[in-house]
Specification:
The protein has 22 helices and six strands. The chain is α+β, with helices and mostly antiparallel strands. The longest helix is centred in the last third of the chain and has 35 residues. A hairpin with a 4-residue loop joins strand 2 and strand 3. It has a four-stranded mixed beta sheet. Strands 2-3 form a two-stranded antiparallel sheet. It is elongated and about 85 Å long. Helix content is 61%, strand content 6%.
Length: 514
């Protein structure tokens, strides 16, 4: 009897089973993230949480980061469990696994589309292996799409999700704002939905939902607004591009191309920018026509792309983890379209013939599958590369320092911004010449000053003079030492250059008094 039950259960676990694919993704993801060597952007938030002196000091430090509080508060809770940065990787893995699980169980896409998406570039690499706050975007967008029908009775659940999304990252705020506008547009212009909602909801529901969203937006904007002495991303004074620049506009559109097809056009070449912009326009046109019979998802697609594109042009071109939110907007729009009956209002208004729409459906499916296959290849390649070539040399360097018993030495480390990963793995502070004091995380403000290698040696010489009992210093640089001094004996120890990020290669030296 027991054998029959086992046989019956295992027979249901075909390759098409969602849980089998989720299990494979989870197992591979766990292997990948444990193997992944974290870099400064992953460990700097951990150090801020670890070394901030008080809650007020933590908030003040976060404001220099340009990110909201959710990720930092999550790390603070994790540190109460285990004071080891490995836990933030496991937590990040859990976020992505939860996202993929929701996607498999609740999204309207077919099996092949779900499979390709799950092992695509953003899902299987960018928002899985690199432990940043951006994985929250995928999770909360998918949760929003899953519970979208709850808006017929209450907006509170969606408001909470939108609040969390807004406080996950600046791009999460942009997506949250777009989703909020979509809900508002539907409530204002869909009389049938409005009538149904007000007949079933509590009297306080709408006001409480609006309050939650507005409070979340205000909190996020306050935190991500950089202090006046910040010079990260241009601060407040010169961080915005207000003039009309057609090349920069095409470069911004190129970020949409990068999110769809994983190729970032060369912004110095007009032909690259123009061709990629035309391709983006064609994909967008196909998507707009496909969604023309679903006004609410159409509104989300237009609004989401416009909001993120405006930010990309006006403020920050971004990296793949940033403009990957264009991709999330596309997926969310297609997901939400499944909830709506077809409406002929827009197609009739713009005289879209049925044959044209039918043809667009066919070509849009082909383009979507092409995008998913490209993402799949990009995800497999990037994931595999990370298994073979360390993303950063930080973990290997830290392991060598511990194994050699060097972690108890007095360490001078520069450049400070590139040393966060080492500080995190070694769980200790270094002397940073950029700060002229001990430190771990980096804040780009007036208290920090970039230094040349000559100045680093000058400060080491001063440390020897001020600390009579200090005869030897371990110097760690992220570039090879190319200067010398007659009053210092400098001995090379070891180089760590096998990694993907060239700014996180480490070079170790002994510096002795002569």
């Amino acid at each position: 009897m027991f054998h029959n039950k086992i046989t019956q259960y295992t027979s249901r676990l075909t390759f098409s089973s969602p849980w089998l694919i989720i299990s494979i993704f989870s197992a591979l993801g766990l292997i990948g993230i444990i193997n992944h060597s974290m870099w400064r952007d992953e460990l700097n938030p951990w150090l801020i949480v670890r070394d901030s002196e008080s809650f007020g000091n933590l908030i003040a430090n976060i404001r220099y980061e340009g990110h909201p509080v959710l990720w930092y508060f999550s790390l603070a809770l994790l540190r109460k469990i285990i004071d080891d940065p490995l836990i933030l990787q496991i937590f990040h893995w859990g976020i992505t696994v939860a996202s993929v699980t929701i996607f498999w169980l609740y999204s309207p896409f077919n099996y092949r589309q779900k499979f390709l998406f799950s092992f695509g570039y953003f899902t299987f690499y960018e928002y899985l292996l690199i432990s940043r706050n951006y994985a929250f975007s995928m999770l909360f967008v998918f949760v929003f799409c899953t519970i979208f029908t709850s808006r017929k009775i209450t907006y509170i659940y969606l408001a909470i999700v939108l609040g969390l999304l807004a406080n996950s990252s600046a791009y999460g705020l942009l997506v949250s704002f777009s989703l909020s506008l979509t809900l508002l547009a539907e409530l204002c212009f869909d009389s049938e939905h409005r009538k149904q909602y007000f007949s079933k909801s509590q009297k306080y529901d709408l006001f409480l939902s609006i309050f939650i969203i507005l409070f979340s937006f205000i909190l996020c904007i306050y935190i991500i607004t950089p202090p006046t002495d910040s010079y990260l991303y241009g601060g407040l004074n010169n961080g915005w591009i207000m003039q009309l620049d057609f090349r920069h506009f095409l470069r911004s559109i190129g970020r949409i191309f990068g999110s769809y097809l994983l190729i970032i056009p060369q912004h110095k070449r007009w032909i690259d920018l123009i061709i990629c912009s035309i391709i983006v326009l064609l994909i967008a046109t196909l998507t707009l026509i496909k969604l023309s019979k679903k006004p609410v998802p159409l509104f989300l697609y237009i609004t989401g792309n416009f909001v993120i594109l405006a930010f990309t042009y006006l403020r920050f071109p971004g990296m793949p983890r940033h403009f990957g939110h264009f991709y999330l907007i596309l997926i969310a729009s297609l997901w939400l379209a499944n909830y709506y009956q077809e409406s002929l209002g827009l197609s009739n208004k713009f005289s879209l013939r049925p044959n044209l729409i039918k043809s667009v459906y066919k070509w849009h499916h082909i383009v979507l599958m092409l995008i998913l296959y490209i993402h799949f290849l990009g995800g497999i390649y990037s994931f595999s590369r990370d298994l073979v070539v360390p993303f950063s040399a930080s973990r290997q360097t830290a392991q060598y320092i511990k194994k050699s018993g060097l972690d108890k030495e007095f360490i001078v480390a520069s450049r400070d911004a590139n040393m966060a990963a080492l500080s995190g793995y070694l769980n200790r502070k270094f002397y940073y010449p950029e700060l002229k004091q001990m430190g771990s995380f980096t804040l780009f403000n007036k208290n920090r000053q970039d230094v040349e290698q000559t100045e680093i040696l000058n400060q080491i010489n001063s440390l020897f003079k001020n600390q009579r009992n200090q005869n030897k210093i371990l110097l760690i640089l992220n570039k090879k030492l190319d200067v010398n001094r007659n009053d210092l004996k400098i001995t090379w120890i070891k180089d760590f250059e096998k990694n993907w990020i060239d700014s996180e290669r480490y070079y170790l030296y002994w510096v002795d008094k002569v």
